[in-house]
Amino acid sequence: MASLDGEKSNENHVEIRVGAIGVERKRKQEIEAKNIDYSERANWVRAAVLGANDGLVSVASLMMGVGAVKENVTAMVLAGFAGLIAGACSMAIGEFVSVYTQYDIEMGEIERERENKVVVVGDDDDDDGVSEEGKREKLPNPFHAAVASALAFSVGAVVPLLSAAFIRNHKIRLGVVVAVASITLVVFGWLGAVLGKTPITKSCLRVLIGGWMAMTLTFGLTKLFAFAEI
């Protein structure tokens, strides 16, 4: 009987330890999943917010600069449309080159690890970096980054174009461009803060003040240049 009781107690003891390990492992996986989610999210949030904000500020400022010397709505819209196309192409090419450079660097690291037979071992199982195939799947895609940046820029650039396209009065048109751009900048700042888990007020003020400075400088310097030419 003593022997049987001892065996039962040992079995119970083992079951408790296994259960505790399972709970700890599950908790660790949940924490790691959350961390991975935010680290991966940061990349596309940065690119999307940067592209949309750049498109909005660039095209709105360009239209304000043209509006400083030209009252014709067609001139403002054409300038804004040209800025949209040029900016989207520039963003796409810049993002493609940047991400492709990162891709080449990480690919080089994978090749060096394979040649040197470097294997990183985790606590419980094979972690990130053990499988070469897993590493390759996590590499950034330059084409996706380029397309995303171009689309984000275009979305931001369309806002001032649409706000000015159907307003004939010159002063009202300029005011509407500034107002719509300001509201959209606040929305972009809020969206970036919510998705990136950063302070909302600081994010909104940062993009709003930056946009105002860009539009004011472009309008003022263009106006000054026009007066100097006269």
From TrEMBL:
Highest taxon of source: Eukaryota
Keywords from the UniProt entry: Ion transport, Iron, Iron transport, Membrane, Transmembrane, Transmembrane helix, Transport, Vacuole
Topology within the bilayer: Multi-pass membrane protein
Transmembrane segments: 73-93, 143-167, 174-195, 207-228
Coiled coil, from the record: none
Catalytically driven reaction(s): Fe(2+)(in) = Fe(2+)(out)
Entry-linked Pfam families: VIT1
Compartments, as annotated in UniProt: Vacuole membrane
UniProt GO molecular function: iron ion sequestering activity; iron ion transmembrane transporter activity; manganese ion transmembrane transporter activity
CC per GO annotation: vacuolar membrane
GO BP term, pick one: intracellular manganese ion homeostasis
InterPro entries found in the cross-reference section: Ccc1_fam
Function: Vacuolar Fe(2+) uptake transporter.
Family annotation (PANTHER family): FE(2+)/MN(2+) TRANSPORTER PCL1 (PTHR31851)
Family membership noted in the UniProt record: Belongs to the CCC1 family.
Protein name in the entry: Vacuolar iron transporter
Classification lineage: Eukaryota, Viridiplantae, Streptophyta, Embryophyta, Tracheophyta
